[in-house]
Every structure is written in structure tokens, then in C-alpha cells.
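User: Can you help me understand a structure? I only have the sequence.
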Amino acid sequence: MFKERKHMKTSQKVMGHVYAIFTILVWGSCFVLTKELLKGYTAIQIIPLRMGLAYVALWALRPKTLKLPWKDELMFILIGITGGSFYFYLQNTALDHTYAANVSILVAMSPILTVLLAQLFSRNNERLGKYVYIGAVIAIAGVVLVVLANFMPGFPSLGKLDDLLVFNDDWGTYRGTAWRITAASWLDQPLWRKLLGVGPGMMHTAVANWAGADITDRMKTFYAAHNEYLELLLTTGVVGLAAWLWFVAAHLRRAAQNWLRPGVAPVTLALVSYLAHAVISIRVSMIFPEIMLLFALLQVFCLPPEEAAVQEKPARHAKKQKTAAPAEQPGLVRQWLPPIAAGVAMMAVCGAASRVIFGFLF
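Assistant: Let's start by predicting it. Here is the structure, written out as C-alpha cells:
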């Protein structure tokens, strides 16, 4: 029972972080999308569209009526008016008068105000350490710099930091160019190709057809988007990208539910590292089969344990034996730090050895 509770708590924590990241991505994109919608709709017209889509999505997730007392209903109505309709009206109006970057920064400051109010009015004695405040300040400063450097006209140059903060064609050894032409090629496709893609391995042809006579020498060098997800969007379409993301999400969700089982954590960490690196890298044909083998191995590690042998019933007058207390499980750090450190050491040794053995190739 103790092990099951600890396992459930860890799984819920991992899935909570996954849902939080997804929420951040969706919420962050709404500022730019709303800015575009304001070209054809007013600030008030966007509110029922947003609320309608939210209602449909929530109804699809839980198609049941939730019965609440009238006091709670009235409280939700008040929250909906102030935190929903009135808030989005002010946000949409602000987006109509200033840049999306400025509005996003102001809204991003609201969690700090929430934390401060929680310290003052919380009944649960919520207290945060100094490291939380330091981390929040550093994170917000980084977000402000990135947003202003990319979206605010006339923002002064930060010198060498511009190479890191400003996302243009030269960013990431010209990955900016690869991403831009890939996205532009997909947008230029007809609807059915946007859904189904131009075909695996056809990125270079699609980019050449899109650029035509305006293709540059730099564009001719890209046979991959250096972003697996963006390349999948162009070559396999929305359907293919959605299928891959669903496949990945299903496996990671199962891994989170079985995090404490032997073998699950290291395989999951390896897959997450690959998936994160895929944002700025290409899909190497020699490595991808091993990645699929890792997904298969993860499924094996997540299989339900075999049923224990049926124990014989004790005699009627036999003394009952005391149930042994569950053995204390080692923490994740103690359990996985040695193999991770060994893996890093082996990578370093193999890298140095390959340089010596195959030095004639360099």
C-alpha cells in the first residue's frame, strides 16, 4: 500500500508537469492569435468565440452535468464575469492598442501578484522560500528580454546576446532560415497537402517549388528542417504530426504512471532527451530505429506484473503471522544517479577513444 501511494504521487506529479507545459504553450500562443483575430473581429466578438470553443472542449472531456449548490453557482458566475469575460475584454482591447509582446509580459506578471496575495491572505499558511522568488525573477527577466528583443520595434541591441535571444534567419547556425522556409512551404500548400503532407523525404523538393527562381544558395543546402516536428508537419501533414504526438504522449503518460518500476525511468529520460533535442535537430535514419526500440522497451517495462502464486490457506487454529512492514524504497536520485553518471562517463570515454582510434578521419 505504501509503495502504491508513493507510485501514484510520483505519477501525478509527472503528469501535472506535462499538463502545465501544454497549458503554457496553448496560453502563450493566444496573444499572437488574438492579435491576428482583431484584424477581422472586435474585442467583444472574440469573447463568445473563445467561450464557445472552451465549452465544447470541456463538454467533450466530461459530457456530464455537474450539480452544485446555488451558492457555488453564484460564485462561479461572479468568477466567470470578472476572471473570464471582463478579463478577456480588457486583454483583447489592450492587444488592439499595443504589441502582443507588451500584453504578454504584463499578463506574465500576474503570477507574482498571486503569490504575494497568497502570502498575505492564505488560510493554509503558504510560505515560499527565497529560492522560489529568485528563480521567478530570473525566469521573468529572461522572458522579458526574449519577448522584447524579438517583437518590440526599436529595442536596442544587446551585443553578443542578440545571437541567443533574437530568433532570425541566422539563429542557431542558420536554423532560423530552415524553420522559416519549412513553415512558409507548408503554408503555401493546398488544404489536402496541409493535412496529409507532401511526402516523407520531400522537404527539399517542396522548398524548391515554393521558392522557385528566388531560391538562394543557403536554401539549397537544407534537406531537413532541423526540427523534426516542423519537418513532420510539412512532409506528413497535420494528420501525421498529430499521430506522432499522440503516440509519444500515450507512451510518456504510461511511463509517468509506472515511473517507479525498474527500467522505466532511464528509458523515459533517454526518450525525453531525444524528443527535446528533436526541436533543433534532424531525424537520423541510423538512430531512429533504436528510438523505436526504446519505445518498445518502455512498453515491456510498463507491463503489469505477473500474478503471484496463490498462497495456501493457513490452518484454522494456526497463529496469524504479522505482516512485514514494507521495505523503504530508495529515492529516485539514489536509484538512478549511479547509472546516469556511468552513462555520461562512458560517453566521454568513447568520444575520446574514437578521436584517437579514428583520428585519421578528422
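Now, to help you interpret it: The chain has a mean pLDDT of 76. The chain has 15 helices and no strands. Let me know which part you'd like to focus on.
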